[in-house]
Amino acid sequence: MKKGIIILFAATLGLAACNNYKKGEGDLQYKILKDEGKEKIKEGDFVKLNGIQTVEGSTNADSTLVNTYDNERPAFFPINKSMFKGDLVAALKMLGEGDSASFKLNLDSMAKYSGQPKPAGLKSNYATFTVKIEKVLHKVANEADSTFEKKKREFFETEYKGLIAKNKANESAKIKKYIDDNKLEVKSTASGLQYIIEKPGNAERATLTDTAVVDYTGQFTNKKGDGKINVFDTSNEKIAKEAGIYSPMAQYAARPLVLGQLAPGFIEGVQLIGVGGKVKIIIPSKLGYGENGGGPINPFTPLVFDIEIKSIKKGPVGGAVTLPPVQATPAQ
């Protein structure tokens, strides 16, 4: 028993040491997690990075505002002049290619200089950024801006093409993994849509000119870093809050969707059931957002939708939306 207590105490001390941040410029606090010893980032450079931004809530656990790993899309960040002492630019200048670190930035300063209000109901006045520098395009001294802008475009295009190729190669495996991990027994249509009818509903079926009023939740096949389902859009307020995508501007209720103006896989899924029916569909990218993607949806990304039809209105209905709206579009 005594040995167990000593081990627990030592582990607690180790954790506390890991949580110690050093003082940087302004209100910046930092903790270098990995240092590859390469040339540090400087003003004018162009950076590819992955990162997680969190804030500490007063009544619950940390809230994740951005997670590029969940989106499977790294961020591309131009290193401009700092807006204030201890901002993210100042933090990134402490790193080089391959490095990783955790930074705490003052939310009041971020709100003042960005013009974006800080989140409400916080326990701490700091946002935590945990980042990994994937690649750095360094601007050479005295290099013409036009020359470097061309290099940036070529750099971005090369990296983005790599992302597309990786997604295309991995799409089938992502779908299989989702089905296997969730132990789903799916059926397939001739087009390649996979589905599970949970409730068939009545005999009525929506046609392309009809408006289907539906409750739905759209998610990616990969789980989030916290193990939760990776929701990108929903008509359900509770699910939106749990997924961290809630917006006070959104109307959370069954939404009228003009069927003929939706993605082919979504159309086919809705037509599998009648009013009162529920269906889970797994849409391959060829029946969804394809090789171009859209919003937070990357090229060649399979999607999962849970759909319940509340009613079918014959012909388009005024005020109906044409596509399942997406909640957030990460900056490129």
Automatic annotation (TrEMBL):
<keyword id="KW-0697">Rotamase</keyword>
<dbReference type="InterPro" id="IPR001179">
    <property type="entry name" value="PPIase_FKBP_dom"/>
</dbReference>
<keyword id="KW-0413">Isomerase</keyword>
<dbReference type="Pfam" id="PF00254">
    <property type="entry name" value="FKBP_C"/>
</dbReference>
<dbReference type="GO" id="GO:0003755">
    <property type="term" value="F:peptidyl-prolyl cis-trans isomerase activity"/>
</dbReference>
<feature type="domain" description="PPIase FKBP-type">
    <location>
        <begin position="209"/>
        <end position="313"/>
    </location>
</feature>
<dbReference type="InterPro" id="IPR046357">
    <property type="entry name" value="PPIase_dom_sf"/>
</dbReference>
<comment type="similarity">
    <text>Belongs to the FKBP-type PPIase family.</text>
</comment>
<protein>
    <recommendedName>
        <fullName>peptidylprolyl isomerase</fullName>
        <ecNumber>5.2.1.8</ecNumber>
    </recommendedName>
</protein>
